[in-house]
Design a protein that fits this description.
242 residues; 6-stranded mixed β-sheet; 9 helices
Length: 242
């Protein structure tokens, strides 16, 4: 299939999440009680106390975390040649509601019945996390994220993890593993996902997280290309917008 046709209306995304509060004791009493219940069911090989486990693990649960950065990217072509290019940027901020509204506005620039969102493990993490946090923040879901009542073939989302699994749903492979397998440069040269909460709350370095998130989106797009049996975008044709 022609790459231009395949990539039309595909938006590559990645989210960065942190715990909703910098520490367990900043939660109100009701949410502390709910976290303690949650923590009792989380695998905890190091026997970490619930209040310490909150800082380490709350970010991955939409009920106890929040989104601070969303990376978005798309393939495009100039009129002068056939060379595919890739442009990526990141939306970030401390105000989660404002960030999600900005992301919603971006999504709605696309024809909603044609927009294809692509993420790694997006069907189990990125897409539902975004939907849940939009609802928590009182934001009406854009059509491209309204999944309830839709048949599987009506949902246009793509997931590079699903593409790699080929139906083997007991298998899980991290984005960085597949990048290494396909010879795609890693996004983990500076920080990894495990560092994001610390970098956000302790170092207060949101710009560092933005840069990391953009690189994750670049890796995601390059992996998508390889899984679809296309060549990756050459480094000189990758545009990282501010």
């Amino acid at each position: 299939m022609d790459l231009r046709k395949k990539a039309k209306n595909v938006l590559f995304i990645d989210i960065e999440t942190v715990s909703s509060k910098a520490s367990f004791d900043q939660l109100d009493e009701r949410m502390q009680e709910q976290w303690e219940r949650k923590a009792a069911n989380i695998r905890n090989d190091d026997h970490v106390a619930p209040f310490d486990l909150f800082y380490r693990r709350a970010a991955i649960y939409a009920e106890f975390g929040k989104i601070i950065c969303i990376g978005v990217g798309a393939l495009y072509w100039n009129t002068t040649d056939e060379q595919p290019r890739f442009k990526v940027k990141s939306l970030a901020g401390d105000d989660e509601r404002a960030l999600l509204l900005e992301f919603k506005e971006l999504l709605e620039k696309y024809p909603q019945n044609q927009l294809i969102l692509c993420a790694h493990n997006g069907k189990e993490f990125d897409f539902p996390y975004i939907c849940r946090r939009m609802l928590v923040n009182g934001i009406t879901l854009p059509e491209s994220l309204q999944l309830s009542g839709k048949k599987p073939w009506e949902i246009l989302h793509q997931d590079t993890l699903d593409m790699w699994r080929y139906g083997d749903y007991k298998s899980f492979a991290q984005l960085d593993l597949l990048a290494a397998l396909f010879g795609i440069p890693s996004s983990k040269s500076d920080i990894s996902g495990e560092d994001v909460t610390r970098v956000y709350y302790a170092e207060k370095d949101l710009d560092r997280i933005r840069r990391y998130c953009k690189e994750d989106v670049v890796v995601l797009a390059q992996l998508w290309l390889r899984l679809n049996q296309f060549e990756t975008v050459k480094p000189e044709y990758i545009v990282r917008a501010e």
